[in-house]
Backbone:
């Protein structure tokens, strides 16, 4: 059973471009969470999704950031018009049901130049 | 507003001795607590958890203690091994809320 798969592992974008981060949850997991880790900080919750639904997006910046988890395919975190402050490690986690321990992917390291 | 705090940025322990990592929280609504271990350039790996109805949970070399009145939990690793060297994150959640609130992490170095 493959773990949570994130791609790409590393992503470099110029300021103003769009970044798309993908997450395939573990098999059988229908709950997906996105977290962001800035340098020297802990992980900060961004958004919680179930298939086709956003359950909690209280940690998402109001502008430029969006997330989806379609019926088919991976969950996508999209950042439009990236700025240098978006440079961070973005982690996806999945769980079979909400409220249990979540299993994390290896992360996508976004660098905005 | 830091709801979960790990006040020790780093800890150094001799191989074979006990490692004790501490975590404090401020939100009394948290009722589920977890510890994750993270190596550089990898995602966090779940270690052990405890629900608020318990005060202790053990799994092999790892034991988590919860003191609800003090809003404090700790992770004990006995005996410590060099492979335990990593960043350890404490996290908390309200079961209903599902999302995890993480501390800033403690770097553990186990010296051989």
Residues:
């Amino acid at each position: 059973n493959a773990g949570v798969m994130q791609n790409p592992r590393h992503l470099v974008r110029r300021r103003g471009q769009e970044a798309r981060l993908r997450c395939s949850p573990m098999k059988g997991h229908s709950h997906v969470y996105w977290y962001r880790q800035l340098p020297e900080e802990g992980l900060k919750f961004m958004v919680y999704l179930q298939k086709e639904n956003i359950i909690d997006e209280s940690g998402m910046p109001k502008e430029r950031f969006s997330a989806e988890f379609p019926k088919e395919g991976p969950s996508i975190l999209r950042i439009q018009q990236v700025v240098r402050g978006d440079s961070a490690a973005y982690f996806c986690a999945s769980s079979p049901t909400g409220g249990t321990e979540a299993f994390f992917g290896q992360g996508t390291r976004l660098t905005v130049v | 507003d830091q709801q979960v705090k790990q006040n020790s940025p780093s800890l150094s322990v001799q191989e074979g001795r006990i490692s004790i990592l501490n975590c404090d929280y401020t939100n009394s609504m948290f009722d589920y607590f977890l510890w994750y271990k993270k190596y550089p350039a990898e995602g966090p790996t779940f270690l052990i958890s405890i629900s608020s109805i318990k005060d202790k949970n053990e799994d092999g070399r790892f034991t988590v203690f919860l003191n609800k009145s003090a809003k404090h939990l700790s992770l004990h690793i006995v005996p410590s091994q060099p492979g335990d060297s990593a960043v350890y994150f404490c996290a908390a959640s309200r079961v209903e809320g599902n999302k995890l609130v993480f501390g800033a992490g403690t770097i553990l170095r186990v010296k051989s």
In short: Chain A has a mean pLDDT of 93. The longest strand of chain A covers residues 43-50.
